[in-house]
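Margin note from the TA: students keep mixing up input and output lines. Inputs are the sequences; the output is the structure of the whole complex. Example:
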Amino acid sequence: MANSSASHPAYLQHHFVDSDQQFDAAKMGMWVFLVNEILFFGGLFCAYIVFRAWYPELFTEAATKLNTVWGAVNTVVLIGSSLTVAMAIRSAQKNQTKGLRINLLITIVLACVFMVIKAFEYEHKFHEGIFPGAYYTYEGIEHEMAPVFFSVYYMLTGVHALHVLVGIGLMVWIYIRAGRNEFSSEYYTPVEITGLYWHLVDLIWIFLFPLLYLIE
Amino acid sequence: MSAHAHEHHISTPLQLWAVGLALTFLTVVTVVVSMFVPIPAPFDIITALSIALIKAFLVAAFFMNLYWDVKFNAMLLIGAVLFFILMVCVTLLDTMYRVEVVPSF
């Protein structure tokens, strides 16, 4: 072991053979977690499919209460944040700590913009009495199953928004660590892994947007 | 295995911006199609979801780097999608063939 300590970087855990193995193991672990996330959201998507198959006319009618323009704006905001995360990873790979921090900062700002728009959308609905489940009091939709649509809507977008909040927290953490110069082309695993998580949040929204907002 | 058996792929800014712009363009296309092009019942959803699938492929392949990554990670993603489809199919086998949709509802 004595001869290996000289070439042993601080970030390399002793149970890994080398940095590559550690990086690949971490990345695969994240993908296994993302599989879990996909199936977790999958349950909610499954509920959406079941209810839409039962009450297609309800979905057509109730979806008019969702603002397509704000949904589209939020889609573009999330795509932009995915782009800046990818740029942040590139900066880390290129040893550009400043670029890494700037891209992370833009990502955090875009994620906050997404949350603010979402909050305004929710606020507008609450104001009209559109609450999930038993708390639903809005009378503008004829269909008797109207609360069901909005329960599905609030669960899907709510759990997604929770993921965005977690993502903001992770990004702030990476931003602080980048400020301490902890990342370089040799070691940027946390940046890569957080990026994967953020792209998945974007992926989920890519499907949520047409399924909820674009029903004609 | 040598020290650098495989170099990590580094995308150029041009590649990343191209993917970002393609995703934005496809978003605009979905919105415009859904608002101004009347497509009969099942095909409007099929169109919207097809565009969403193309977008998802772009994100997974070029933002999540699966295109350059070890194939095992892509297999995990495909596996997750297949199991999701299985879950939906088994559920629909129940819900689509009930006499009463939801008893007591």
